[in-house]
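PT: before anyone asks, these are the final sequences, not the draft ones from last week. 416 residues across everything. Please model them as a single complex and drop the result in this thread when it's through.
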Amino acid sequence: MGKALGIFVAGTAGVFIGMMLLYGAIQLTAVVVTRWFDKKVEK
Amino acid sequence: MIEEFSSLIYTTGFLYLTPGMIFMWLIGFILIYLAIAKAYEPLLLLPIGFGIIVANLPLAGLMAPDTGLLWKFYEYGIHWEIIPPLIFLGLGALTDFGPLLARPSLIFLGAGAQIGVYIAFFSAHLLLGFSLQEAATIGIIGGADGPTTIFLASKLAPHMLGTCAVAAYSYMALVPIIMPPVMKILTTEKERKILMPKARKVGRLEKTLFPLVGVLVIVLLVPASAPLMSMFMVGNLFRECKVVERLNLAAQNELLNIVTIFLGLPVGATMNAQNFLRKDVIFIFVLGLFAFIASTGTGIIVAKGMNLLSKTKINPLLGAAGVSAVPMAARVVHKMGQKADKKNYLLMYAMGPNVAGVIGTVTAAGIFLTMLK
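LR: through. Structure below.
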């Protein structure tokens, strides 16, 4: 049971951590693109 | 002459038929019927059904190790990790991450649905005594992602591959029947009426960068997810960069269609009477259904949790789209929203958690692989 519980906790946490990192990366990309690259296209 | 005639009779399969084989034909015929007459996941259930029938023909030896034709498809296609990643290449080319990028917070709904996968895993191991590897393979059915289920099963529990694949694809076909009751129980009429604020427009550069950023983040976190995730993202890069249209079209049409044939047949062929006619199989189907329901439910619960923490409310029905069955789950969410309020157009919003669910399921499978292989 110990290992199953460990996988349950680590797995759930792992998926959420992955999504948090991805969320951060998406937001960062959006900021960089809209702040700098989109303006260049407009000019 | 009589001797030749009798030896000819002994070379036919008729004398070697068993009741188990005939029962497996019946299963194959049912899947083919569902595929043709009811259009239930026909692209996969039809070749799987046919694979079951021909693999249960005596003396045909299609699954004989080293020599059987379908065994070669299985060994070099699935066991060698070729076909499921190629399916993901095609899926990546078909996927539009725009709705997710427009509202990135919906990504957590894709993670929420994976809690159900782990609940089913834990239940299968603890309550029904499946080994950790078998329980993980059953749990991933809840992710509603056929290629990922096949990929994980081939690594952790090959003897359950056919059964889990059929369960996954059957439940994916039954999304419009399985999900609505769970969604109704877990949401109020008022919550189902919540209108989503207009999403921002996402530019080409952001869409092109996402597969690069996505593959870096997820594969660095869970390296075992690399075969599926890298193919998924390169397929999406083909789509979004707009300079390799031939590759994009080949990935989402010809390649995807060809590998689907070579996936379905050997998966069906793994289901021989010996493997399938066991009491465990009933438990696998029941637990698979439980996993599916649990994933739908946990997605909705996470959406409701997000509403508690955020000023901008989201429609909690969107949480149900966190299971990966793309785009069926998103369509069901949209229909439920429309039933509550005709002005409620949830389809594009639901596509966000829906594609996040694919990434979530691959991540969950990668974690299982890392911890259990």
